[in-house]
Every structure is written in C-alpha cells, then in structure tokens.
C-alpha cells in the first residue's frame, strides 16, 4: 500500500472531498489571501509536503505567539491556510507543555499528542474550505528546533519529492511566495528561500551595545550580495533528508543543505512577510492584515 494512502491515524485530520464550488477566502478571515482559485497547473500536486514548526514556548515574545489572534485567525491558522491548498499534506510540530513531554527523537505517544492535536483539529475544522484534500498531521515538537524538524520529517511520507519548511512566526507569507520556492526546486535547485535585499548598514557590537572597531579595516561584501532570509523555504526531499541525517542540529535549513553540497537559490522575498518575535511586530502584522491584500 502506498504510504500516502495508508489509513489515517488518531493524530491525522480527515478531510472531506473538495467542493465543486470555489471557496471564498473572505469567508475565512479578512486579509487572508489563499490560492484556492489558482489554476490546477499551478498547484504542485501529490509530491509536495510541508512542515510547520510551531512548538516554541514564546520565551522571547512572552507567550506562545503561534496561538494568538491575527485578524480572526491565529498565526498558526494563517500559516496552515496558505500552505494547505498547495500541498498534499501539512505536518505541524506542536508544543506539549501541558503534558510536560516533548519529542526526543524516540517517537510519539498518541496519548501525549491528544491535547496538542486538539488545537489543530479545531484549525482543520475551520479551514476545511481552503484546505481541500490536504492531510493535516500533528507531531510532538522538541526542546530544540532540530528536534521538531526531525519529528516532522519522520511524519512526511518517503514518496514526497518537495518538502516545505515553514513556521508560525511568518504568518503573512503569501501563496505566491510558496509557489515561487516550490517552482525553484522543480526547476532543479536543491533548495530555495525568500530573500529581501539588505538596505541598512550593519554594525558589529558587543553585549553592552558598544560598536566594535575593525569593520572599516575589512570592507564588507557589496550590498547586492546580502539578503535577509525568510521562510517558507522549499527543498528537494532527498537533499533535505540527507542534510539533516548528516547535521541534524543546524538552526537554519537552507544553510544546512548548502553546507552539505546542495545548490540553494534565493527568490524575491516579501516586505510584508514579517518575522513576528515581539508584541510590536504582532501589532504591525495586524495593521497589515487590516489593510487587506
């Protein structure tokens, strides 16, 4: 039996057949731009799976921000809603602070997952219209990012050809951006990430905020060669699995795959694709959503 056709597990979310009627994105939440009306040829098909890393405790933010409201949906909800129409399945790595358990690489216990999985089941119920046939799976996240990646990767079928890595801290990434990184991989790259041109001057400072000398003695690379790295990122599945099997503790996936010999390309990023790490950045994201597409 093909693994993608295996019977659903308790943590899987059953999905109904796609309706003949095209969904109305505005019925889900204001400001949410989904790809439900994208032509069939623009959709990647059955070989694309996404992982959404949402297991953080929110230590920098002061709360688990992935579950906070952003224009009628949580940050996590918006991330799933954007990815699902373009994927066969989405694996979500969730925190399990209520049980005191995390995934240490040994495996998931179904009982441990029930509480955290309940949130994603509610998300799936809300997003059935835009998620279509995409499978929704949950795994226990780990203490470190690499643990969550490893747990999510184990839940992605080996038949997947492209793996998307996303996180709930970038809830405003558009479907266009998802298609762009997928397209770059389908054209032969081992990985692709959205990059924004670096337009500000960088300074090297110490822990007290005092600027260190020496930068002027070593001219920095031209600004055109520097970009700010965003997510979602997409990878050839074989290259991604190989890179993580060699160096599973890396903090940034495109750098990891590049270090293992993969060819990584940048696609144009989006200024509105904020990395939400502070309450002020969440307030800005809410203003962007309220302004509409």
Automatic annotation (TrEMBL):
Record's keyword annotation contains Ubl conjugation: no
InterPro entries noted in UniProt: IspD/TarI, IspD/TarI_cytidylyltransf_bact, Nucleotide-diphossugar_trans
Gene3D superfamilies in the cross-refs: Spore Coat Polysaccharide Biosynthesis Protein SpsA, Chain A (3.90.550.10)
A Pfam family: IspD
Keywords assigned: Nucleotidyltransferase, Transferase
Superkingdom to which the source organism belongs: Bacteria
GO molecular function: 2-C-methyl-D-erythritol 4-phosphate cytidylyltransferase activity
Region (Disordered) location: 1-32
Protein name: 2-C-methyl-D-erythritol 4-phosphate cytidylyltransferase
Originating organism: Kineosphaera limosa NBRC 100340
